Amino acid sequence: MDGFYERMEDHSEAKATIVSKYFWAWAKIMLPRSSSKRIAYIDLFAGKGRYDDGRKSTPLLVLEKAIADPVLRDGLVTIFNDVNPEYTKILEEEIKALPGIEQLRYRPAVSSIEVGSEVAELFEGLNLVPSLVFVDPWGYKGLSLRLLNAFTKNWGCECIFFFNYNRINPGLNNEVVRDHMIALFGESRLVKLQSRVANLPPQQRELVIVNELAEGIRGSGRERIEYVLPFRLTTQAGRRYYLVFVSRSPLGYKIMKDIMYKASTSHEDGVASFEYTPVKDSQLKLLFDYARPLDTLGDELLSVFAGQTLTVAEVYEQHNIGTPFVLANYQEALKRLEAAGRIKVDPPRDTRRPGTLPKTVRITFP
Q: Most buried among 103, 160, 200, 310, by the most CB within 10 A?
């Protein structure tokens, strides 16, 4: 990791922006609903808090938002950890130097422990207040399905983690790190994945690996985690990383999808790439079938909801999981279907404000 903190690269800035924006939106919703009147932000790989070029990383951005808000000052508990004691020492000094830090009711806790099975076991035994957990490892050590499940088991608890594809891709078939790969994918899924990607071209291999990661996180049965949303970060040198959001809340999923939509550097027909790329490359293809234009979305809605009548909001809520589409995309696709006479809309467009399709409007699919 030597040199990592010399300067903040574009993809790191995008990552920090997404996390801090989501924290703000999440905190404003969770704190009034917390029975203990407390919420927590936990960062297990916090680093130094600031890059050598002076730019702030996520810990300081989160604390600044808390200091600026009178309600958050009283209810936010923050825990920052990094295995490197030199980093945590610097982070403590950076925190102390923040203007207004003394106004926080709960002093930020800073620790230096290695994240592994012991940490997962600790969180499994805790009944957490609503918590947003950020897991940003350099490679793959410490990141596991067990840890993600432990973080999200309680109400209001969500996790955002950094998936270093450049380290994990070659690690799939490396016996030296096999235990780490099993922790991340599960043993049976890893064996199947190794066989499945053996002869795939690089782009297709990436798609399969990230999809399998998402499916492994979702799991199955009663404990299934429904909402997993990946966002790809590409550097100018072509390295690929993912910021992955994990939640049991449809509202959290919607909010994060809107944030990632706005952070995307490219759109096709109004549909976001869910990717930050500092230099636009026309050869980059969108993952997860994310390149479907809105006309194709309209055709899909006609098939999925054939014979049904639903509001615009219900169409969005029932269909958007696992797609790149935000509410505005559904509204546009439905307006195109209405203009083509392929659906019945109540109230019809000649009685609505021009160009609008409110969420309460009812759609009848033939």
A: 160
